[in-house]
Each structure stands twice: as structure tokens, then as C-alpha cells.
Amino acid sequence: MTNDTPKLAADLWRLHEAEETVSAIRSGAVDAFVVQEPEGERVYALATADLPYSVLVETMQQGAAMLDRNGEIIYCNASLAALVGQTRESLIGVPLKVLVADQLAFQKLLQEAELQSCEGEMQLLQADGMVPAKFSCRSLSSDKSTIGVLITDLTTQKQEADIVARLQQVQDGERRRLARELHDSVGQLLASIAMNIARVRAESDKLSPEVAELVIQNGSMVNEITNEIRTISHLLHPPLLDEMGLPLALRWYIDGFMERSKIRATVEVPDGFDRLPPDTEIAVFRAVQECLANVHRHSGSSSCSVKLVRDGQELQLQVEDSGSGIPKEKLANVMSSGGVGLRGMRERVRRLGGTLAI
Ligand SMILES: Nc1ncnc2c1ncn2[C@@H]1O[C@H](COP(=O)(O)OP(=O)(O)OP(=O)(O)O)[C@@H](O)[C@H]1O
Ligand SMILES: [Mg+2]
Asked: What are 255-309's pLDDT values in tens digits?
């Protein structure tokens, strides 16, 4: 009996270990295990271990491919096959680069993927044309023998961007027209009314004191409306922008902004700032308008700064405030939800070949 005690303890311990292992397998914490067999250690992988990942890759809308060292497809999902209009079987063994318009750029992307995750936009070839697509690549094994590529069709995204760009062109044109209309027709009419009032005032001795006072009041109201109309017209399309260029138009706008919002704003433009193409000038001006409107509406800051930096062919606009900032969780989807301000700004900048960073 006494001799059996160590054996019982050892059995109990093995039972306990077995229970722990089974429970780990059940909870999904283990996807493979090593068993000591007479011939040595043997690794058993659980058949269902990567099932959830396979289902995900098989059913997702993005195209997915796994490439070998030579960039040839060793696996591709149904979405990629549908995207290029071929069967999955026919794609196996094909170098993915032959499906890309700019093969050299794709080759570079694959080289970079050996070092770090990377992505690039390129045209994906189809039987009867091509589609814009984003390629996200990363190495899948430590010996860099396989590379995973995710391919997102950007057609809808590009179409939406084009619509936003066209809307903005229409909006710019319409604002310019409205500004001119307000200035030329309403402004001219108000000028005539002001002249008539001045004539009536010159003969106010023929009026009763009450009526004479009303004429004076009308005079100041017409002056107020004239100023208001000028401000609205200039905000819709600053005449200084076309005539005098960006630095003066920005200073004029920022002075008005400070007066209206009571937020301190500074503007810094390098000396001898040359004129830019009209599209660029209006894009920068509208970006400043939107950024300052956002500072006023969302930041709670009492000051902000606007800075233009020119480095050769590159132009940088920096707008900063010292307010609340955009919360991290909001920042992630600020471009896909909510207002059109930042999205419109990004499209304008993109059309000019630039980028927007928040
Ligand atoms: N300077 C800022 N400080 C803090 N939050 C900001 C700032 N600028 C933008 N945001 C946040 O980013 C969001 C998106 O800004 P965006 O300009 O695109 O839209 P919006 O201002 O809400 O509406 P719209 O511009 O269409 O009138 C805002 O709703 C706000 O939460
Ligand atoms: Mg806004």
C-alpha cells in the first residue's frame, strides 16, 4: 500500500495535466501540440485551428493572394479571381505582376514587403480593361518565402472622389457667380438708395422731425446692409484672391475671422510669395476657410495659427490650434463619416497631387 502512494500521486498529476490540455484545446487556446512517441516527438495540428481565418479570407470582398519567393500565386481567393475575371485554378503559378499595369512598381512593392508591411495604388488588369486598386503586402513567414497580398478595388472610391471634385468645381463657380451678382446688382442698388437718402437728408428741413429721424435711420441701415453684403460677397469669393493673390486674401480673411469669432489668429507667409495657379490658390484659401471654421466650431481654442511654407515646387499649409483636438477614436473614421469639410479638403488637395494630414 505504501509502495503505491508515489505512483498514485504521479497518476493524479498526469490526470490533472490531461484535464488542463483538454480544456485548453476546447477553449481554442491551443492549435497544435507535441506528443512524445516511441519514434520521438511528433507535432499534431488541430484540423480546425485555422478554419476561422480560412473562412474569413474565402468570403471577404477584398482579393487575397499568397505569393511564393518568385512572386507567383500559390493561393488566391474567389474575390481576386472574380476581380480579374479568371478562374482560381488558372491563376495558380502565375506571377501576380502580370496582372498589374505597372510591373516595375509592383516588383518594388514586393521587395519592400520583405522588409515591412507596405501598400501602393496601381491599375489591376482585367480581360477588357483595368481597375484602380490598392495593394497591401506583407511577408507571411520569417524566412520571407511567402508574401500575402490584399487587393482592394478602388473603383467606387475613385468615382465618389470624382463626384466630390466635380461638385466642388460647380460650387466654386456658383460662389463666384453669386459673389459677383451680389456685388454688382444688390450692391449697385444699395448705392443708389444711399444716394437718394442723402438727397432727402439734404432737404430734411422740409420734413417733420420724426420723419427726418427715420430718414437718418434708413441711411445707417443701408450702410449696414451694404457692409454686410460686401462681407458675404467677399467670403463667397474673395476679390483680392484673383487680383492680389493668396497672401493678401488670407490676411484679409483672417482679420475678418478674428473680428467675428474673437479667436486670435496669426498668418505667416514667406516674403516674395509668388502667384500660384488659380486652382491651387482657391484650394489653399478654401482649406484655410474650412480649418478656421472648424477651429471656431469644434476646438474651443482661443488662438490658432496659419502658416504657408514653400520648398521648391512643394507648398505646405499648416493650420494649428491649441484646443481639444480630435479624439483618437473619432479620428479613425473622421474621413468616412460626419461632415464634408475635411473630406472636401482632402479631395481638393488630392486633385492637386498633394496629401492631407491631421
Ligand atoms: N480644429 C478641430 N478641433 C477639434 N475637432 C475638430 C477640429 N476640426 C475638425 N474636428 C472634428 O472633425 C469632425 C469633422 O470635421 P469636418 O469639417 O469634416 O465636418 P464638420 O465641421 O462637422 O461639418 P461641415 O464641415 O460639413 O460643416 C468635426 O465634426 C469635429 O468633430
Ligand atoms: Mg467643418
From this structure: 988 988 899 999 999 988 888 998 899 899 999 999 999 999 999 999 999 999 9
**Alpha helical stretches, state H, the chain:** 5-27, 51-59, 78-84, 88-91, 103-113, 155-181, 187-202, 209-236, 239-244, 246-261, 278-294, 328-331, 341-351
Q: What is the 123 CA–ligand 1 centroid distance (Å)? A: 33
Q: Which ligand is nearest to the CA of 295?
A: 1
Q: What is the rounded average pLDDT for all residues in the chain?
A: 87
Residue-wise pLDDT for 92-138, tens only, equals: 999 999 999 999 999 999 999 999 999 999 999 998 899 999 999 99
Which of 261, 263, 298 is the pocket-test mutation for ligand 1 (most atoms within 8 Å of CB)?
298
CB-ligand 1 contact for 356 (6 Å cutoff): no
Residues with CB under 5 A from ligand 2 (ion): 294, 339, 341
CATH topology of domain 51-153: Beta-Lactamase (3.30.450)
CATH 3.30.565.10 fits 240-358, yes or no: yes
Per-residue confidence (pLDDT) for residue 43, from 0 to 100: 60
| pLDDT attached to residue 63 | 96
Q: 41 CB contacts (<8 Å, ≥6 apart)?
A: 34, 35
The domain segmentation of the chain, as residue ranges, is 5-45, 51-153, 155-237, 240-358
